[in-house]
Amino acid sequence: QSSSIYITLTIIGFFFTGVPGSMVVTWTTFNKTESKVEYSFLGGRHFEMTANGDATLFVDSGEEQRHMYIHRVTLTGLKPAAAYVYHCGSDKGWSDAFFFAALNDSTNFSPRFALYGDLGNENPQSLARLQKETQLGMYDAILHIGDFAYDMHEDNARIGDEFMRQIESIAAYVPYMTCPGNHEATYNFSNYRNRFTMPGQTESLWYSWNLGSAHIISFSTEVYFYLEFGLELLFKQYEWLKKDLEEANRPENRAVRPWIITMGHRPMYCSDDDQDDCTMFDSYVLHITTHKNVEFVSFTGVDLELWAHEHTYERLWPVYGYKVYNGSKEQPYVNPKAPVHIVTGSAGCREKTDMFNPNPKDWSAFRSTDYGYTRMQVVNTTHIYLEQVSDDQYGKVIDSIWVVKESHGFSAWF
Length: 414
Ligand SMILES: *[C@@H]1O[C@H](CO)[C@@H](O)[C@H](O)[C@H]1NC(C)=O
Ligand SMILES: *[C@@H]1O[C@H](CO)[C@@H](O)[C@H](O)[C@H]1NC(C)=O
Ligand SMILES: *[C@@H]1O[C@H](CO)[C@@H](O)[C@H](O)[C@H]1NC(C)=O
Ligand SMILES: *[C@@H]1O[C@H](CO)[C@@H](O)[C@H](O)[C@H]1NC(C)=O
Ligand SMILES: [Fe+2]
Hints:
Elements: E1 7-12, E2 22-29, E3 36-41, E4 49-52, E5 54-59, E6 67-75, E7 83-90, E8 93-94, E9 98-101, E10 112-116, E11 119-120, H1 127-135, E12 141-144, E13 148-149, H2 154-171, E14 176-178, H3 186-195, E15 207-211, E16 214-218, H4 231-249, H5 251-256, E17 259-263, E18 304-307, E19 313-316, E20 319-320, E21 323-324, E22 340-344, E23 364-368, E24 372-378, E25 383-390, E26 396-404
Parallel strand pairs: 10-12, 11-13, 12-14, 16-17, 17-18, 18-22
Antiparallel strand pairs: 1-2, 2-6, 3-4, 3-7, 5-6, 7-8, 7-9, 10-24, 15-16, 19-22, 19-23, 20-21, 24-25, 25-26
Helix pairs in contact: 1-2
């Protein structure tokens, strides 16, 4: 079974100092083997270089207690923007050969992303389009904003294995960056924590990284809901978030990476009608009365907040505290005076898409119940472009905006 391998490529360590990044390759085998990645420049002699790592045993908590080995190998010293070919495994069996481009570490770089949440093993409608576009080189990174596989732990975690094989055709080519959603909660998020490898030391639960002129923060909205797994996680994340935002907001940091973008699974505002979190024109996230309410992140000069969980696409006018703060009536996203929110959870899963409440509030700008995903390009320090792709309409772009900011930060809102 050692050739039963799936691969995800994630980034570790992109720092303000501009030190060229490194990538970590993560895969699974069902017997204990060595962990090697052989790689080379694309076009050169194949597999000239070797990197070694190690494997950790993951025992699923289902009744079969299935054992698997999660291998992690870090590639360092990669040449920015250079293309590489690699495979991974050991002398007991190798994966297919994949290619990737090391990320350009310049703050002038204009990274392109695909982003979505709620992609399942069954009915993953957008998957084919994402596989093709990723392999065509349309994206520098993917942001999967929670809810994987539906659910990774099911069938003694075989659904997790199957899902990882499904996304291998994306995640082996570009960094696949994640945050946890409610569908990962079973057994204390153990499938999520074990199968992914995000930056930092939090088992992928919360972290931040930089690309181009953006500082991207990923956090867990689930710490507000699954208190049985540890109230201390909520406080730990809060303290970390506060510090990370402070650091990103230091004038010397904000000068080079002015965009602060967050991603978290459950949105603050949404206008679905699904008898779930979103029945009161916002999400339970905003009703949680434990102190450390999640909207505090909006109050720290964050520019853009990306969410999923609702199986629809919704774009909001700039909003804070239920109030719209357009840049101007004619150009709401030019120098907006509050964060811009996007809810994009319609990639496709067995729960299908949700319905909208027919009478949205005034902060709701555009809504679609089509399956699809979002593209984003952080063009430069003043411009971000976002567009929504409808998979139902064969890839048609059904919505797009430019967010333009001449100055960033909390003070720019007044
Ligand atoms: C990285 O991107 C910047 C901005 O587009 C470009 O000027 C630079 O040449 C790129 N670096 C490499 C190594 O290609
Ligand atoms: C759940 O997992 C987190 C992350 O590893 C850990 O800090 C926490 O203690 C765990 N909670 C329980 C109840 O085991
Ligand atoms: C925000 O801008 C949009 C687009 O111009 C407009 O329809 C909406 O009424 C504005 N909202 C407020 C509260 O000004
Ligand atoms: C950023 O990109 C936009 C759109 O391409 C362009 O109009 C603008 O001049 C650029 N701004 C800077 C500071 O380069
Ligand atoms: Fe969800």
